[in-house]
Amino acid sequence: MAILEIKDLHKSFNSNVVLNGVDISVNKGDIIGIVGPSGTGKSTLLRSINLLEKPEKGTIKIGDTELNLPFKGKDRKKVNELRLHTGMVFQRFYLFEHKTALENVMEGLVTVRKIPKEEARKEALKKLENVGLLEWQNHYPKHMSGGQQQRVAIARTLAMKPDIILLDEPTSALDPELVTEVLNTIKAVAEQGYTMLLVSHEMDFVRKISNRVIFLDGGKIIEDGTPKEVFDHPKSERAKDFFEKMRGLKEPEFYI
Length: 256
Fold this sequence. Notes:
Blueprint: E1 2-13, E2 16-27, E3 31-35, H1 42-49, E4 57-62, E5 65-69, H2 76-85, E6 86-89, H3 101-111, H4 117-130, H5 146-159, E7 164-168, H6 176-190, E8 195-199, H7 203-209, E9 212-217, E10 220-225, H8 227-232, H9 237-250
Parallel strand pairs: 3-8, 3-9, 6-7, 7-8
Antiparallel strand pairs: 1-2, 1-4, 4-5, 9-10
């Protein structure tokens, strides 16, 4: 059964059409990798799902909440309901610098969910333990590596108990040596049964973690299938060319 349905989604920035009639149906427990060239609407799609971007046309439905776009002032309640169903992990961590790791994870529980502080603290500690950072609960972001900060951001998202987790290039701002710890954390989260939409250029990781892969180009979905279907047997020439170039980047240019 679909937990998320998107129909005929359109989004432009001035004259630049970024999403051009996107349709997606996501089932509970799906791990969907979203890949494609830069500038083809991958991040905009995620940001449109939780309405950080405002699409000009289309329908978004999560659970029993359905929103027809563009949304207006009278739709504010539905917008808030949709946002409560989703959790976003950004490229940048967006942690409060003046709050500890524990306080960062507690923040949404207290201010948005209105959970009593002691209950929020217990939940936040559980989530920090889930991402392997329980011992860092009293550290501030400036004393943590980028990988640790991103793991705190993931714990913060998990604490809000979203139905769908949206991950927008969660490793792109990290030094290469820190990428693996964040990918391992995402893998562990996926294994807990969360529904996830992941935008990433880490093709090997997308292939291993996803049960379904979507290839976006020119604001349209041109491939949608299993990782093997999309990566190994793409139907479109555009996707074939893209994956061929990606494979070429992994091969050394010269040998010593």
